[in-house]
Amino acid sequence: METVVIPASAPFEEVLAAVTAARPTHLVGYATVVGRLARAALAGDLDIQPVRVSTNSEPLLDEDRQAIAEAWNAPVHNQWGSTEIGAAATGCGRGAGLHVCEDEVVLERVDANGVPVAPHEPAAHTLATGLANRTFPFIRYDLGDEVAVLPGPCECGSEFVRLADIAGRLDDDFRYPTCTVPASVFRSVLGTNPRIAEYQVRQTATGARILAVGSPDVPSLTRAIARELRRQGLPDPEVEVELVDHLQRGSAAGKLRRFVALKESGRNSGL
Ligand SMILES: [Zn+2]
């Protein structure tokens, strides 16, 4: 087996050229990068036929999963984990969601006071205790992701508990004085536009500033976002769409934050 490692933070043109040259049979990568590669394949800019695709490090959004399925018709194994604990759950490619790696990690879904909640109840925190790392153990470590348990057995036969696909960090929602706008509102407009390869939404006091890679019709896109924000209860939203060559990824691990909320003062102090 030959392994080719391509930095996710490299300019996309470099990633695309490297993947084209490597012609991988198994494609493993950040969910938004693999999603963008799938859109490139659908647009005729990438000719590869992977037999298996694995995504990691970022939430696998529906828009990316669909693009991957359309581009390559290969099973998708989504993985969820953290630098601190390692792999916490992985998709089997058959049933929905991800199986918890129960031999590697103990996951506890708890309320705001740290008390475990039932599988069907929403949790305030997800705590992870790693079973493998004895040198630097993490015990009841708050992963910060919102996870929900899927009921019933999986068609693959595994007995390991399944989680629904990880939606993302709890602070993806944008809180304005008059309303809360879920990230899905932006996603439904931006993620389904075939002329947008990648985007980032930054909350502003009165609306949002959107950085987009691609060639969308900016005036109509701006109007569409403003219309959705008004429907959510934000009066007179100010929306700005800026086309950029590339998006800045986080320096530490190269992750793309698609939604950057405005930090409110007093948000965590019960005000
Ligand atoms: Zn399964």
TrEMBL record:
UniProt cross-references to PANTHER family, sorted A to Z: CAPSULAR POLYSACCHARIDE BIOSYNTHESIS PROTEIN (PTHR36932:SF1)
Protein name: Phenylacetate-coenzyme A ligase PaaK-like adenylate-forming protein
Coiled coil: none
Record keywords, A-Z: Ligase
GO molecular function: ligase activity
InterPro entries the record matches: ANL_N_sf (IPR042099), CapK_Type1_Caps_Biosynth (IPR053158)
